[in-house]
Amino acid sequence: xxxxxxxxxxxxxxxxxxxxxxxxxxxxxxxxxAQGGLGLGLALVxxxxxxxxxxxxxxxPGIGQGSEFVVRLATMATSLPAAAPVPTGHDTLPAGSAxxxxxxxxxxxxxxxxxxxxxxxxxxxxxAFDGASxxxxxxTSKPDIVLMDLGMPKVDGYEAAxxxxxxxxxxxxxxxxxxxxxxxxxxxxxRQAGFDRHxxxxxxxxxxxxxxxxxxVDAAH
Length: 221
Prior knowledge:
Layout: E1 2-7, H1 41-51, E2 55-59, E3 67-72, H2 89-92, E4 100-104, H3 108-120, E5 124-128, H4 131-141, E6 145-148, H5 157-166, E7 174-179, H6 184-193, E8 197-200, H7 205-214
Parallel strand pairs: 4-5, 4-6, 6-7, 7-8
Antiparallel strand pairs: 1-3, 2-3
């Protein structure tokens, strides 16, 4: 079965065509069209389609001329050549390197997409969509790592981090700020709030995954 999704939107630059399905890759922003996504959506689509033995291709005449994505999947009545095995986190993570991760972002799509990617890599992931929920989740589910946005309404990431650190159970959690704010003042504020690392979106995937696997887990925690 072939599924085609076509639009007449901003189109795709030829230079970006070969990298669209890379994790965290984002094409160059173009004026008012720039958006602050994580660069995960198409990479997840690509992986999921491959896991089902299918293929996905993209076509675009160029900038301003729209684009088309075509997914091909085998039906029950046909037999396509088996796709090459796609490594998943459950196969590639060394024993004991999976982490309990809490992803916090008031942008639900961003949080859930990042959580899906981390689950595919073998991690145990929970989501929260505001600072208050993050504080409660950190206290009850006892994650090893919290990936938290900073610019959230009401209770922002700084305040949430301070509250987590005040709780004895939160002092051993590895706090990572994952944010679009990358200025030195932002980094200083995150350190003062108790964050262990400050990563700026879009983060290099290898860097994030290596960091998660390298975090030491406190047995008492």
